[in-house]
């Protein structure tokens, strides 16, 4: 896989939310110096060895299990400290990049990042390389789909020096599991906070930062999703029965929350999906 691939991009391809510009692998990365930077975003992931990255006036040591992000047009250089310094790399661009990196992963600048699951990222990169190497028609669209999946897993895997979305999601994971297991009954914020041994106030702050909603908003969304599953599973159930099955004491409150979350009443939802009322 040492030969890099540079897919041919059309004007249509360059309007995709995320698109591939190059991808490759070096068994031993050579010294690279770019005073003018690189025109696209780059992710370089270390498989073995140790190297040094210099960017933004900072020096970083990069080891296996880590990768480094390079933002476009930013002066940088990198070289090996111990060999072989094996790297996989992928460069990309697109209108969705700022949202994915800045708002989802808290990746705000070029630098070194540790990843929680490097193997899955490498699997993505190898898959993208395989498709990009074919040169078949519409390869850029195929690469864009795979690249978006890669970016979503990267968002979940990246650990930065400040608390990131990935870390927050991992912190909240026991709470999410608790909600799923107990969605059939009333759940309090104190119960959820006890799952991860934090205060109710901190839990609310963590949810707002990570999920962009309050804990009970998430609980209600989970309840409404479960209610939809029940409608398909057993169309004979009455609304008050479904409300009880998903933790609502009041059928009228269930209908109110359903309409707020789904944008329609439970009865409208059943009609819309052809479920017999």
From TrEMBL:
SMART domains given in the database record: HTH_ARAC
PROSITE patterns: HTH_ARAC_FAMILY_1 (PS00041), HTH_ARAC_FAMILY_2 (PS01124)
Keyword Cytoplasm assigned: no
Gene Ontology molecular function terms on file: DNA-binding transcription factor activity; sequence-specific DNA binding
Entry keyword set: DNA-binding, Transcription, Transcription regulation
Pfam families with a match to the protein in the record: AraC_binding (PF02311), HTH_18 (PF12833)
UniProt protein name: HTH araC/xylS-type domain-containing protein
